[in-house]
Each structure stands twice: as structure tokens, then as C-alpha cells.
Input
Amino acid sequence: MRRSLKETRETLSDLHTSHPTPAGLQRFLRGQAARTEVRAVVRHLLAGCLECVAVTRPAWGLRGGTNGGHDVIEGARQELRAAARDLKSIRYRMLGVHASIPPASQETSKGDLAGEMDVETEIRNVIACGIQDSLDPLIDDWLNAASYQPERREAAGNAGADSLSIAHLDLSVFSEETRQALYEVVAAENFGSTALEPPCEGSVLPYTAEQAGLEVTWAWGRWFATWWKLELQDTLPEAQRRETLLLEENRARPGTLAYREV
Output
């Protein structure tokens, strides 16, 4: 569940604790810190302590920069996706443990479960609840955050604002008209300018759709958008330098476009 900006600020304010010691940070980075110490360091880093983040960033391979810098944001997106993959591995591992324990009679009985749970039921229950209530929402939140882009703010009285609607498009079949219309929407929402003019103030990306080689393609019965991340170094693998997103109708806001990581 996404928190309001006020709730987020209050939470981050609560996370401000005393600085970890240099030795404590080193134990944390080496994976040698106790659970309580790890929790305290993570809470402190989440609070945005610039001094401690500057120490940990090189160890995690993240570039420095100011708030909103493209290198910093891209590094954070990559870390979120990598962490989500790790959580998925843990999820599948725990599902295997859950499946390896046969349900006890206490779990399968239709009678009232009174008293303490037996060991089998307790372990299966903790794993199932942990995945459903914690792991799955966290994985979804991190992946959503990794692909999050602010909604494009339309200027008051902009007559072209309605052009971003896809209500008139049938995304279940291919047509050149649909491809061109999706291209215009993706370009407007993610780049906000054309090759004939410099990127407008407030654009999500500091280059144009044409410069990034934006392509909208139809494959396997779905629509996809892909472009080059020009802010990244050419020496990186193509998989890291290319953004690839699945295009579909936004269920929460019918008639608008939603993007999903591939």
C-alpha cells in the first residue's frame, strides 16, 4: 500500500537515529553484523544520512550524485530490481519448504482449532502468511518503484491533452494506426519533446524519443516499447542500457496507458 507524502516524511523522520560507528558500517557491508545491528543501520540509511550513504554507495557499486540525478536514480532502480529478484528466490525457496511439510491433522481438520498449533502447522502457517502478507507486497512495491514515473503534468488549457487517451485503441490486435498512436503517447509521457526542439522543462528524460531510438512493437500478442538509456555508458551490456516495457491499459485509470517491466 502506497503511503501519502506526509506519512512518508513522518516515517523517514522517525528513522533518524545516531550514526553507526565506522566499525559497525564495515560489519554491515561485510555481512557480519548481528540482526539488530543490521536493522539499525538499514533504518539509518533509509533516513537519508548523506554521510553514511557516501560510505556505503561505493561498496554497492552506486554512483554519487545529487537528489534526482539520472545516474543515482538509475542505480537505485537497478538495485530495487536486483533486490526484488533476490526476494523472489527466497519466496520460491520457502514455497519449497512449505510443500515439503505434509499438512498435519490439525490443519486439515474441519473442527475448531483450539490451543497451540503443532510444529508442522505453525511452520506452514508462518511461511504462507509471510509470503502473502509481506514478501509478495514488498516485491510488487519494489518493482513498481523501479519503474515509477510521475504522471505527466499537462499545462492548463492544453488542447492536445486528450491525445494521450488510448480509449479508442484496441490493444488486442495489431494495426499501424495503433502503433503510431502508442508511439505518440509513450514519447509524450516519457520524453515530452521532439527532435525538432530541445527537451522541455520538467521532461522525465533529458533527451528526445528520436535520440533514444524509441520503438513501439507488436509481439506475442502484446505491445512493447523500448529505447536506449542514453545517460548510461556505452560500455555497459545492452540489457542494462535498453529500457523495455510492456504497454497495456491502466486498470486503475481506464483509457490511459500503463507500463510494466518485462
The mean pLDDT is 75. The chain has three domains: 5-60, 70-146, 161-261.
